[in-house]
Amino acid sequence: MTLTGSTRTIAAVAPAAARRRTGSRSLERSNVSDADLSRRSTRIVFRVLLAVAIGLLVVISAGPLLWLAKSAVSTTQDILTQPFALWPSGIQWHNLTDAWNQIQIGRFTANSLILTTGEVVVAVFASVTLGYVLAVLRPKYGPVLNAAIMATLFIPGVISLIPLYLTVIDLGLLDSYWAVWLPNGVSAFNVLIMKQYFETIPRELFEAARVDGAGPVRILWSIVLPMARPIIGVVALLAFVASWKDFLWPLLALPTPGKQPLSVGLSTVAPQADLAVLMAGMFIAVIIPITVFIAFQKQFLSGAGSAGAVKG
């Protein structure tokens, strides 16, 4: 079974129409008008304030990372005696190799990649299927399920630790990757943003596909998923970052050191490791998610903007 030409035409035109609706919104008015900027004194003050604001943002956001990068190639003595020096007295590149070999950063990194990959797959699958059910299929119990999912956003995660831990033990999943993949992969926030994105897709597409004889699975595969690539990228990136930095639950669910991720492994080796080598290990742990975000920032920002669009 194939979809007719009319359905393909609607599917091809819908994303462009959605972009036009989003782009046609009136621009927000600035606090500084063009008439104010025409005065030289106002322009100078405005540019100075803008430069100061940007400088503060750069220092606040990039400052800790730059300090960590400097400490990663410094000696322990320099870190302790000159913590705020702008440049190390001597660059110690061997700190990075020592961190990889001595405190087994390579093994912890491999574990983190395994956990992160599994959580991303579970997060995308759960958010797509649940979002599709709530936004497209719309069963009778949909509002109740939607309210239950939203309610979980207001429950502190620490409250569910003990019940979740006991459930993992009862299912025999303790000290397995599934103990981390399943609880962390299913996120109410990801489900809701996926549902919101699916609701912006014109329902005429689904009606035309049903007329052509397409079932729910075919509609999901042929129409929804191709149009949802931007938001799927957003969910995948959010799941990646959340999994990479998670500490408490992997510490409880993976007691075996050979299965622990970077976040847990660094804390276990910290008391015995040299400070400079530990800083190098922390730099390796931080630079990986930053690199992933920089590589996919265009897809993330476009998907995040699409998630905030409202069907006109």
TrEMBL record:
Coiled coil: none annotated. The chain crosses the membrane at residues 44-67, 120-137, 144-166, 178-198, 219-244, 275-296. It is a multi-pass membrane protein. Gene3D superfamilies: MetI-like. This is L-arabinose transport system permease protein AraQ. Keywords: Cell membrane, Membrane, Transmembrane, Transmembrane helix, Transport. Belongs to the binding-protein-dependent transport system permease family. CDD domains: TM_PBP2 (cd06261). It is found in: Cell membrane. One of its GO terms (biological process) is transmembrane transport. Pfam families: BPD_transp_1. It comes from the Bacteria. The gene is araQ_12.
